[in-house]
Every structure is written in C-alpha cells, then in structure tokens.
Amino acid sequence: MVSGDGSDKTGSAGDTGGPAETTEADEGGPIEETLGELLADREATLAVAESLTGGLVGSRVTDVPGASAYFDRGFVTYAYDAKRELLGVSRESLDAEGAVSATVAEQMAAGARDRADATWAVSTTGVAGPGGGTAEKPVGLVYVGVAYAAPWGTRDSFVRSERVVLDDDRGTIKRKAADAALEALVRAIREVDAEA
Predict the structure, then answer these.
(1) Which DSSP category does 67 fall into?
(2) Residue 128 resides in a domain
(3) Extended beta strands in the chain, E state
(4) Engineering a disulfide at 121: which of 73, 147, 149, 189 sits with its beta carbon 3.0 to 4.6 angstroms away?
(5) 64 Cβ partners below 8 Å, 6+ apart?
(6) Buried b (16+ CB within 10 A) or exposed e, 158-183
(7) 25 belongs to a structural domain
(8) pLDDT tens figures, 70-82
(9) 17: number of Cβ within 10 Å
C-alpha cells in the first residue's frame, strides 16, 4: 500500500502483506463489526463510494445489525459519468489519470463524504480483471480513499489514499479490495483518536 507516508506494500494470495481472505480486527471479530463499534461509539456517520467493488463495502457494513445508526448511504459509480455526476470527480483527473488513480480515489471519498454530510467516507477504485490491466495499472491494482470531516474550525479534516496490489481472480480481488477499504477506515479512525 502507498499511504500518506509513501510506504508501499504488495499483497497477494497467501502473502501476509495484503488483506487476509477473511479480515478480522484485533478484537477477534470481523472488521465490519469493529468499524461499526468505532463509528457508533463516536456517533459518527459513514458513506461509501465504490467502483470495482460494486457495492461490496456497503454490503459488508450493513451486514452488522444496527448499522442504520451510522451508515448513511453508498454510491456505486462504475462509469466515468457516474463518478463526475454523483461524486464530483473532475473531468480533468479522469482524463489525465484514469479512474484507477490515487487522485480519483480521493475525490470519490471526498465527494461521498460531502454529498452525504457524513463524518467519514471510504472509496474503492481499481482493476479487478481478468482483463483491463496494463503494465502501469495491472490487474489487482486498487486505490482506497478515506475522507474525514473534522469539526468545523479545527482544520483537521483530511482526504488520503492507499495503493494496494492484489493477486487473485476477479471475485477474490473484489473481496480483498473491500477488506482493504474497511481496514483503511478503521486505521484512520484510530489515528484520529490517537491524535485527540
């Protein structure tokens, strides 16, 4: 993953550097339950913006009973026009970098956060395969965006992205991308807590 600190990790099937097949938080339960507890405890809200995962992140979030207390909405924006119309992703970014980029992942997350007026948003964009990959953007390349709306006047709001490279079939890449999104969001919430 490439995050704000520029570090890079590549995960493949069976590789500990990437998201596990079934992701569980350090409390022992599924990551979506940990996320739900973190959001509910803080009275925070969540919106998701998904491209390659096609709704899997939102589905995982709503698998947790009581998710209506924190889950606001999901945007499935597979096409360029959907990203522009529903999330405000710029034509210039899509034209210059394509949908699979850190910039677009960040604009998707910020757009979902701002349109839903949510505390948090997470986005996914990438190449699920089996076709569509290039040398620059191979099958399994995924960008996850995370956006946070801090209280007004604090100047602590942010948007950032992580780069993940996964190696498997289409369905598994999509599931691992959803895992990566949930993990990135949990990490970000905990980082905000640690700085408070």
Answers:
(1) G
(2) yes
(3) 46-50, 71-76, 120-126, 141-148, 158-165
(4) 147
(5) 32, 33, 35, 36
(6) bbbbbbbbbbbeeebbbbbbbbbbbb
(7) no
(8) 999 999 999 999 9
(9) 12
